[in-house]
C-alpha cells in the first residue's frame, strides 16, 4: 500500500527547470519528460509553451535531421518532440491551434519536394491529426484557406501518412454540421475523382496502392457513419460520387487503358469489391424499406458501369499479365495463376451474389461469355490453389442459391423479381448443361481415386469439390430453384444420371460421414499441454469429473471477493484473518456414482486433502482450526461443509492430537452412530468382480482373495467418513 503515502521524490527535471539557461535539448534528455508533461507539470508546460520552444519542436518534426549522426540517435529528438506535441495537453493544443504562425510552420512540411521522409511524415500526420480532433474549427478553417492543400497531399500520397491525414479529415471532424461542411469542401475539390486518376498504369505502384486503399477506407467509413447516425440531413457527397456510374466507369477505363499491369488491375478491382460490399441498415433484425431502396440503387449504378467491361475481365482470365515461372514445394509452376486472375474470380463471385434489377444484365453477359466454364477449367487446372477453389465454390453457391434475401422480402417495392429470377434460371441451366457441372464432379472424383490407388497424393481441390457436390444435393432438395435442378439432373444421360445417384448415395455419403466424425470424445476433452503428462488418475472417473466441475464452478466473477485480501485484513486483529474463511458457507458436489465406483471416493479424498492441509497450516498461526466434514453415501450426493468447530487451544506443553481416539469422548457409541470412521474395520477396496479398474496407490494385494465375494450393500467398507485436518 505504498501508493497511500506521498513518497514521490523530486526528479532531476525539477532541478533543470530551476536553471535560467536550461535548453529544450537538456529537458528532452530526461527520461521522465513525457511523463511529467502528461501529468501537466506546471513549470514544464510553461517552459514548453514559449514561442521559441514550440517553434523548435515543430522544426524537429518537419526538418530532415543531419545525415552524419548514428541512425539510432538521428530521430531521437524528432520522436520526443512529436510525443510532446501530441500528448493531448490543453496548453500545447491551444498554442498550436490558435496561433497561425505555428500552423504555418507545420504546414510548410507539405511544401517540401517528394519523396518525403516517411518517419517525419508520420510525425507530421500524427501532430496535425491530433489538432484536427482537438482544435477542429481552427484547423479546418486554416486548411480550407490553403488553395493547394489537397494537391500537396495527393502529391505525397505515395507516403502512407498522407492517406491517414485524409481519413482523419473524413472521420474525425465533429460536430455533424462541421463534418458535412468538410465533406462538401472535399467533394468540391474533386477528391474522389482525383484519387481514381491515380489508379492508372502510368503511375507507380506505391501511389496506386495507397490511392486504392484510401478509396476503400472512404467508402467503408462513410457507410459506417451513415448507418450509425440516426438522422442524416444530407447524404455523404464523397460516397455518392464514388458510387456514381461516372466514377466507376472512369475507374474501369483507367484499368484497361494502355498496357494492362497487374498492380493497376488488382487495385482497381479492390475498389470495385468494396463498392459491392453493401451494408444494409437493419433495425431489430428487419431491414427497412429505405435501406432496401438505397441498396438497390447503389448496386444498379455499379453494375451498369461494370457490365460493358465484363469482356475485358473475361479476357484477363485467358491472357493475364505475364508472370515468370514460380518454384513451389511440388515443383516449378510454369504459368502461375497470378493475383490478377484470382481477383477477377473474386469479382465474378461478388457480382453473382449481388441482387438488383441490373443483375439480370450481368448474368446474361456472363453466360454469353461462358465465364463460369472458364473458371471451372482453372479450378481443376490449378490443383493446389485453394484461394481460387474457394472463389469458384462461392460462384457455384451463388448460382444455386439465387437472391435468397430478395426473394424472402416481399415488402420490396421493386417490380423486377421475375426478370431477376429468370436470369438466375439461365445461369443454373448454363451451369448444368453447358459447363457440365455434374460430369466434371464425377470425372474429377474418379481421377482422384485412381491417383490415390496408385500411391499419389489426394488432389488439393477435393475438399472444395465435396462442398460443391453437397451444395448441389442440398439445393436440389430444398433450394430456391430445387425444381429446376431436379429437372436438369433428370435430363442427364441415363448412364451419367445413374453414376450421379450412386455417387450421392454411397461415395458422397461416406465422405460426409468421415468428415463429421468427432476427432475427440466429448466427455474426455483435455488441454493440449496435458498430452505429454501421464496422469495417475483413471481416464473416466465420475468423481474426478465432478471435482473438476467443482473447481470450474468456483472460478466465478466474485472469485476475488471470496478469496482476495482487503486492506483491513493486514491488521493485528485475529478476527479479520479468519474472515476470509467465514465467507465460505457450503460447497455442494452432486455425484451420481455408478456401481463400479468403489475406488472413486478415495481419489476425491486424495485430491482434496492436500489443499485443506495448506489451509489448516495457514490458520494454525492464529489458533484457528479448519474442519472438513465429508459425508459419503453410496448412490447419493455428498456435502463438504466448512463450519466452525471448537478450536480451544490445548494446554501448555500438550500436543494437539489430530486423530484423537473415540475413547476420549464421553459417548463412544453415539460417536460411532454419527459415522466416525473406524480405520481398523476397513475392508479391502474391490472395484469389481473381475479385478481393479484403475491403478491406485492403495495396496490392493489383499483384494485378490476376496475378489469373488459379493457386496450387496455396496458400502465400500465404510458408511461415512469424517476427517479433521
UniProtKB/TrEMBL annotation:
It comes from the Eukaryota. One of its GO terms (molecular function) is protein phosphatase regulator activity. InterPro entries: SAPS. Pfam families: SAPS (PF04499). Transmembrane segments: none annotated. One of its GO terms (cellular component) is nucleus. Residues 710-725 have a biased composition (Polar residues). Residues 690-725 are annotated as: Disordered. Belongs to the SAPS family. This is Protein phosphatase 6 regulatory subunit 2.
Amino acid at each position: 500500500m505504498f501508493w497511500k503515502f506521498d513518497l514521490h521524490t523530486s526528479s532531476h527535471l525539477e532541478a533543470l527547470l530551476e536553471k535560467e539557461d536550461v535548453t529544450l535539448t537538456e529537458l528532452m534528455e530526461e527520461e521522465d519528460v513525457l511523463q511529467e508533461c502528461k501529468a501537466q507539470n506546471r513549470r514544464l508546460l510553461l517552459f514548453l509553451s514559449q514561442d521559441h520552444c514550440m517553434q523548435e519542436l515543430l522544426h524537429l518534426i518537419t526538418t530532415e535531421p543531419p545525415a552524419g549522426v548514428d541512425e539510432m540517435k538521428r530521430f531521437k529528438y524528432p520522436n520526443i518532440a512529436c510525443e510532446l506535441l501530441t500528448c493531448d495537453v490543453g496548453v500545447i493544443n491551444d498554442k498550436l491551434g490558435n496561433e497561425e504562425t505555428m500552423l504555418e510552420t507545420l504546414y510548410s512540411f507539405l511544401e517540401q519536394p517528394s519523396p518525403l521522409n516517411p518517419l517525419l511524415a508520420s510525425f507530421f500526420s500524427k501532430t496535425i491529426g491530433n489538432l484536427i480532433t482537438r482544435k477542429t474549427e481552427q484547423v479546418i478553417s486554416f486548411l480550407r484557406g490553403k488553395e493547394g492543400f489537397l494537391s500537396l497531399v495527393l502529391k505525397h500520397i505515395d507516403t502512407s501518412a498522407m492517406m491517414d491525414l485524409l481519413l482523419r479529415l473524413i472521420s474525425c471532424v465533429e460536430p455533424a454540421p462541421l463534418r458535412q461542411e468538410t465533406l462538401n469542401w472535399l467533394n468540391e475539390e474533386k477528391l474522389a475523382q482525383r484519387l481514381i486518376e491515380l489508379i492508372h498504369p502510368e503511375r507507380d505502384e506505391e501511389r496506386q496502392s495507397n490511392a486504392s486503399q484510401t478509396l476503400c477506407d472512404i467508402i467503408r467509413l462513410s457507410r459506417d457513419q451513415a448507418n450509425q447516425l440516426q438522422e442524416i440531413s444530407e447524404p455523404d457527397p464523397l460516397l455518392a460520387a464514388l458510387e456514381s456510374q461516372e466514377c466507376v466507369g472512369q475507374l474501369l477505363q483507367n484499368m484497361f487503358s494502355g498496357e494492362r499491369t497487374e498492380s493497376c488491375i488488382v487495385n482497381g478491382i479492390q475498389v470495385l469489391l468494396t463498392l459491392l460490399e453493401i451494408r444494409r441498415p437493419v433495425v431489430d433484425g428487419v431491414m427497412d424499406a429505405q435501406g432496401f431502396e438505397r441498396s438497390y440503387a447503389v448496386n444498379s449504378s455499379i453494375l451498369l458501369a461494370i457490365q460493358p467491361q465484363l469482356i475485358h475481365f473475361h479476357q484477363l482470365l485467358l491472357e493475364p499479365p505475364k508472370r515468370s515461372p514460380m518454384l513451389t514445394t511440388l515443383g516449378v509452376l510454369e504459368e502461375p495463376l497470378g493475383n490478377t486472375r484470382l481477383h477477377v474470380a473474386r469479382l465474378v463471385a461478388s457480382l453473382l451474389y449481388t441482387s438488383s434489377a441490373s443483375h439480370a444484365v450481368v448474368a446474361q453477359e456472363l453466360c454469353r461469355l461462358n465465364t463460369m466454364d472458364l473458371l471451372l477449367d482453372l479450378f481443376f487446372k490449378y490443383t493446389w490453389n485453394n484461394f481460387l477453389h474457394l472463389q469458384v465454390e462461392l460462384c457455384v453457391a451463388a448460382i444455386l442459391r439465387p437472391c435468397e434475401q430478395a426473394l424472402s422480402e416481399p415488402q420490396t417495392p421493386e417490380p423486377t423479381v421475375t426478370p431477376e429470377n429468370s436470369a438466375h434460371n439461365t445461369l443454373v441451366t448454363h451451369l448444368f448443361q453447358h459447363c457440365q457441372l455434374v460430369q466434371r464432379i464425377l470425372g474429377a472424383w474418379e481421377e482422384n481415386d485412381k491417383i490415390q490407388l496408385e500411391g499419389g497424393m489426394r488432389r488439393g481441390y477435393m475438399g472444395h469439390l465435396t462442398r460443391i457436390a453437397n451444395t448441389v444435393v442440398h439445393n436440389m432438395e430444398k433450394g430456391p430453384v430445387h425444381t429446376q435442378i431436379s429437372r436438369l439432373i433428370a435430363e442427364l444421360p441415363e448412364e451419367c444420371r445413374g453414376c450421379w445417384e450412386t455417387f450421392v448415395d454411397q461415395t458422397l455419403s461416406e465422405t460426409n460421414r468421415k468428415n463429421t466424425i468427432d476427432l475427440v470424445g466429448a466427455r474426455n476433452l483435455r488441454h493440449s499441454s496435458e498430452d505429454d503428462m501421464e496422469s495417475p488418475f483413471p481416464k473416466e472417473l465420475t468423481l474426478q469429473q465432478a471435482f473438476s466441475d467443482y473447481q470450474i464452478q468456483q472460478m466465478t466473477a466474485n472469485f476475488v471477493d471470496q478469496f482476495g485480501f482487503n486492506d483491513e485484513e493486514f491488521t493485528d486483529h485475529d478476527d479479520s484473518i479468519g474472515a476470509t474463511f467465514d465467507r465460505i458457507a457450503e460447497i455442494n458436489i452432486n455425484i451420481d456414482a455408478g456401481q463400479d465406483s468403489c475406488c472413486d471416493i478415495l481419489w476425491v479424498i486424495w485430491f482434496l486433502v492436500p489443499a485443506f492441509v495448506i489451509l489448516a497450516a495457514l490458520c494454525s498461526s492464529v489458533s484457528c482450526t479448519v474442519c472438513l466434514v465429508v459425508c459419503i453415501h453410496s448412490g447419493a450426493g455428498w456435502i463438504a461443509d466448512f463450519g466452525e468447530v471448537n478450536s480451544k487451544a490445548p494446554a501448555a506443553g500438550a500436543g494437539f492430537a489430530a486423530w484423537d481416539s473415540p475413547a476420549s469422548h464421553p459417548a463412544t457409541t453415539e460417536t460411532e452412530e454419527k459415522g466416525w470412521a473406524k480405520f481398523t474395520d476397513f475392508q479391502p477396496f474391490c472395484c469389481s468382480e473381475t479385478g481393479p479398474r484403475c491403478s491406485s496407490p492403495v495396496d490392493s494385494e489383499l483384494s485378490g482373495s476376496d475378489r469373488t465375494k459379493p457386496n450387496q450393500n455396496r458400502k465400500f467398507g465404510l458408511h461415512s467418513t469424517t476427517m479433521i485436518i
